[in-house]
Amino acid sequence: MTELPQDSVAPPPESPNAQGRIALFARARWLPFVLPLAVFLLLGGLEATPATDESPEKPGGAAIGLAIPYSAYPLVYTLKIALTVAAILFVLPVYRTFPLRVSPLAVLVGAVGVVVWVGLCWLDLERQFLVPLLEPIGLGGLIAAGTRSGFNPLVELADNPAWAWAFLAIRFFGLAAVVPVAEEFFYRGFVMRFVQQANWWEVPQGKVTAAAVVLATLLPMAAHPGELLAAAAWFSLITWLYVRTRNIWDCVAAHAVTNLLLGVYVVSTGEWQLM
Hints:
The protein is an all-alpha fold. It has one domain (16-274). It is built from eleven helices and no strands. It has helices spanning 16-27, 31-44, 73-95, 104-123, 125-134, 141-144, 153-156, 161-194, 210-223, 228-245, 248-269. The chain starts with 15 loop residues before the first helix and ends in a 6-residue tail after the last helix.
């Protein structure tokens, strides 16, 4: 059995199947924290991106010899979410060792976070200042590499309204429920503890070092190249929340609130390039 975090409470008795998984996780302690996000990111490579003023449409899966069209985005995204949920359920016995509690501060931080994210994305400082600096050394395309799908199901699937609304619900589920769990357990549960000591699984929630804080900002920035400044500010805010409440589920909740409100903003304004 894996050791529980120092501030954890014992979870309910597990089934024999779950006990077998816990034994596996005791041998590969990193697996529960890495697997869901790894599945999400790997399958994300199968998603096509639309044509923009800067580049033509890029088919999905090009790295492995595929050419998945942009029109297949709903099916690819649905598959990605389904398999990521399966990965989360597989590692759930470990996640359940972290006491499930959420503070009002997490909700407030999530609401503030969407203002920070949308505001910095709206300013588009990356393309105004960073692209001109990077282009002379051949790295200007890094910012464009962060282009999001921007898939508007209410337009792209207008001939099939039932599927359009169903996919929009799937999109919101992935945005507000799946992504927060996968990302926060990777960054707070693994990365920020891994850099602190060899037996990183014994590091209590909320304990950080300078290296942990820096890495928990730089890695999300690398994962959001088109929104570098927004990612830097937003993930720093969540790190502050993590230190303040010493509770990973507060980070998940704040992430969920921000993403849910972002989704509402996008549908309300038509700014689909943010999703």
